[in-house]
Write a structure and sequence with these properties.
Radius of gyration: 21 Å
Number of strands: 12
Number of domains: 2
CATH class of the largest domain: Alpha Beta
Largest sheet: 8 strands, mixed
Number of helices: 13
CATH superfamily of the largest domain: P-loop containing nucleotide triphosphate hydrolases
Order of helices and strands: EEEHEEHEHHHHHEHEHEEHHHEEH
CATH topology of the largest domain: Rossmann fold
Bound molecules: adenosine-5'-diphosphate, magnesium ion
Strand order of the largest sheet: 6-7-8-3-9-10-12-11
Strand content: 15-25%
Helix content: 25-40%
Shape: globular
Length: 336
């Protein structure tokens, strides 16, 4: 059951996409909770299922070609079973969403002030004057220097960083307890990225909301997150408080990701040992049973991947998906 502390509780979630008459899971057995007041980062290479997970939480998958199993518990409701009408109220009111591409999530022919106001019209009963005041307040809150002017502008008149601030203002308009940000800084240059991340931190402080921050960038995680879940091929392979993930990563995939941050390289030997080459396989190419890591660690014999690895808690709050070969691998490696 979701407790007071747990804003969102996801249990054994599977999201399968239809290919002909078969379904292949892009999210496979994901269990995770989001607590009040925390920024939970979900990190993984492109194609690891992060956006599919986010889309399942806000209920935007096409039901004809998608099969969702498991539970997404929020305030005693299982969102996977919600009808569209209720879901529409949850989106916006309870869950704010920030996408990677701000231009794609804004209406090109409506001023940004109007767009923020729309959200307030839909989800609050504020009168017109109060709404307009609220629009300016929100623009100010996301760090827009001249809210009066920006409110009257169209998306194409703004820079990428300004647009993403507007998208964040829209997501915040109804003070949702949960915010999901899917690669919110990926399309932005580095300086603007840092500003947007600071903003996410400030918002979190002010609103006490729980934020799910999706990224492929561990630098972003280090700067922002409280807790991290590492995803590979639709599964969480490791979950830990952010400092533990960076100082004591257990899963080879996590180590490989850490080593792909240039400044984290500590020596050639370490880098060679841990960098896992290749890319996430397509859904149809993933092994149907056994370890989804098969093929990513070529020097390991095939049999070690037969077992279905389970996520196990190895220390408070630190979970790793692994089986016997991985323990062997970790232990062996320490002695080298
Ligand atoms: P990420 O956000 O981590 O980059 P995605 O969730 O976008 O990953 O994709 C995970 C996997 O699911 C990929 O193999 C992708 O090609 C596949 N996928 C995503 N959306 C669909 C879809 N609507 N239909 C079929 N396959 C999809
Ligand atoms: Mg994505």
């Amino acid at each position: 059951m979701a407790t007071e502390e747990n804003l969102l509780e996801i249990n054994n979630l599977e999201v399968g996409f239809r290919f002909g008459d078969e379904y292949h899971n892009a999210v496979d057995d994901v269990s995770i909770t989001l607590k009040k007041n925390e920024i939970l980062a979900i990190v993984g290479e492109s194609g690891s299922g992060k956006s599919t997970l986010a889309t399942a939480i806000i209920g935007l998958h096409d039901p004809l070609n998608t099969k969702v199993k498991g539970e997404i518990l929020y305030k005693g409701l299982d969102l996977t079973k919600l009808n569209e009408k209720l879901y529409n109220r949850i989106r916006g009111n309870d869950i704010g969403m920030i996408f990677q591409d701000p231009l794609g999530s804004l209406n090109p022919v409506m001023t940004v002030g109007k767009q923020i106001e729309e959200s307030l019209i839909y989800h609050t009963d504020l009168k017109e004057n109060a709404r307009q005041e609220e629009v300016l307040k929100l623009l100010d809150q996301v760090g827009i220097v001249n809210p009066q002017r920006t409110a009257k502008q169209y998306p194409h008149e703004l820079s990428g960083g300004m647009r993403q601030r507007v998208v964040i203002a829209i997501a915040l308009a109804n003070k949702p307890p949960i915010i999901i940000a899917d690669e919110p800084t990926t399309a932005l240059d580095v300086t603007i990225q840092a500003q947007i991340l600071d903003l996410m931190n400030d918002i979190q402080d002010e609103t006490n909301s729980g934020i799910i921050l999706i990224t492929h960038d561990l630098g972003v995680v280090a700067e922002t997150a409280d807790r991290v879940a590492v995803m590979y091929a639709g599964q969480i392979v490791e979950e830990a408080p952010v400092d533990i993930l960076f100082t004591d990563p257990k899963h080879p995939y996590t180590r490989s990701l850490l080593n792909s941050i240039p400044q984290e390289l500590e020596g050639e030997e370490v880098a060679e040992l841990h960098v896992i080459q290749g890319t996430v396989p397509s859904l149809q190419a993933l092994p149907r049973t056994g370890d989804r890591f098969k093929n990513r660690i070529p020097w390991m014999p095939d049999e070690v991947f037969d077992e279905d690895p389970q996520l196990a808690e190895i220390a408070p709050g630190h979970k790793v998906r692994g089986n016997s070969w991985k323990h062997f691998y970790f232990e062996g490696e320490e002695e080298k």
